[in-house]
Structures are given as C-alpha cells and as structure tokens.
Amino acid sequence: MAENSRVGNDPSDELGLPGVDTTKPSVARVYDMMLGGKDHYEVDREFYRRTMEIEPNAPLLAQALRRWLIRVVRYLTTTAKIDQFLDCGSGLPTAENTHQVAQRVNPEATVVYVDKDPMVIAHGRALLEENDHTHVVAADLRYPDDLFAHPVVSRSLDFDRPIALMQCATIHHVEDDENPRELMARYIELLPAGSYVLLSHFCDPDDGSEVSTLAKAMEANLRSAIGRGRCRTPAEIESYLTGLEILDPGLVPVNEWWPEGPRLAPALPIDFIGWGAVGRKP
Predict the structure, then answer these.
(1) 3-state secondary structure of 180
(2) pTM value?
(3) In the chain, N or C: fewer CB atoms in 10 Å?
(4) What InterPro entries is this protein classified in (predicted)?
(5) pLDDT tens-digit readout, 117-175
(6) b/e per residue, 41-80, with b = 16+ CB within 10 A?
C-alpha cells in the first residue's frame, strides 16, 4: 500500500477521524433523511429545512437517484451477470441498498461499501455483521490506489473478473482542483476489462433555464453548509466516462434511464438535476 494511505481498519481511528461530528451537516445523514431515514441530528435537519426552502421537491431527487441505483444494480446482476460491486460513498444503510438488490438475484454476489463517515461505518458494520458477502471499508474515494490496495477490498473482490464500480452521487462532491476527470480516469484504468462504471451526478445545464437557476441555488446551499459540491454540465459529466462503452440511453436524467413505467406527472425542474449513465470497460 502507498505510504500516504488514507485507509485503516478500526472505525474509531480510520482516516484519523474523530467521532461523529454533530456540529456540521453530513451528506450521508441528509440524504438518509430525504429517503425517510432517522439517523440525523439538528444540524442536518437545519440543512434539510434550508434545502426545502430552496426546492420543496428536493426529496424527489434523492428518491430518483435511489430508484436509478436499484434499476442499474438489478440489470447488472441479472443481465450482465456481474457479481462484484464496489460501492463508493455508499451512505447510511437505508432500505434497498446495493447488497439487498444484488443478493436478491444472486445470494453469492459480493458487495464492498466504501465511506469515510464514521456513522456510516458503524451502522453499516453493525447491520452487515452476519453477511459474509458484504463488507464495509473506511476510505476516502479520492485515493483510488489506496482504496484498491485496502486488504478488505483486495481480499473480497477478484480483480481478474469484471467489477461494478459505483460512483453514485459522489463525484459532484469532488472539487474542481481535485481533478475529478483524472480521478475517474484512474478508477477506470484500475478496473479489469468487462467491468462497469455507474455514475450519477448533479447537473447544471448552464443555459439560463429554470433548471440551471435551481442547480446554482442548490450548489450554493451545498457549498455554504458542507463546503463542497458542484453541479456540472452534461459535457463535463460525460467526460468522466471517457474510454467506456456507454450503455443506452446514454447520460440522461436518472428518471429517463430505463424507467419502470410511463411518467404519471409533469416533469419538474428537480427531475433534471440528477443525471446518470452506465459504461462498460472494453
């Protein structure tokens, strides 16, 4: 493992993190709240209230992103026969996580969750203690070489066979000066041939539209409360998948990626904030 490794083994000291910080909102806890979870603090509720003032339909975005994840994992497990998943920035164990979807189809499917939030790590390990095919790793997704060298990752996943790498609602928290394009290129380089990459990202069409205005307001709210977060253009997001064969229908709003039925209500601006795509490494 590299000398500047950012990973560890015990949730109390991994990454040099202290205990759960209740003075700042957590992306994982707020996302969990929007999905109906109960693991949050007043600082998270305050951020949630501010978000709802900007966009009362904000929970619809979290729900759409989760439904997209479920559809993609189901497709990869059933049709592409993928049985290994590396879920980065996995968040709190809210209903219908990756392992539940994949292992419903294939009980032998292996899932490794990656996060650096101490609450996520503690809850995930407690929930999955008796699941031999699912593991939780404390690591910073901004260091792919360290992550792939982590003993739990290298022991649990077979890098001679295809893996599904999941970057679902994570890369928009990587700042421009941290070079998300280079980061994703390194992930793709490390994956074995035949692997799949799942990417969902907050989008700003930057075209003066109502959607763009909303995206800019949501980005400002994220940066004010959490200190990071970028809504990027479709072209920027697509560049993070360079070198992959993009599955139909390409990079689209997540509600438009193989929807399970017809749209029953008019589209709202919030429906065009979360975009997603799936690519296969040749």
Answers:
(1) helix
(2) 0.91
(3) C
(4) SAM-dependent_MTases_sf, SAM_dep_MeTrfase_SAV2177_type
(5) 888 888 888 878 889 999 999 999 999 999 999 999 999 999 999 999 999 999 999 99
(6) bebbeebbeebeeebeebbbbbebbbbbbbbbbebbbeeb
Q: Locate the domains of the chain by residue range.
A: 14-280
| Beta-carbon contacts of residue 73 (< 8 Å; ≥ 6 apart) | 85, 98, 101, 102, 164
Residue 182 is encoded by which pair of tokens? 């280079």
Amino acid at 42: E
Distance CA 177, CA 11 (A): 28
Both structure tokens of 164: 């599904």
Question: Buried b vs exposed e over 132-156: b needs ≥16 C-beta within 10 Å?
Answer: ebbbbbbbbbbbbebbbbbebbeeb
Interhelix angle 27-34/58-78, nearest 10 degrees:
90
Question: So what's the architecture of 14-280 in CATH?
Answer: 3-Layer(aba) Sandwich (3.40)
According to the model, what pLDDT value does residue 14 have? Answer: 40
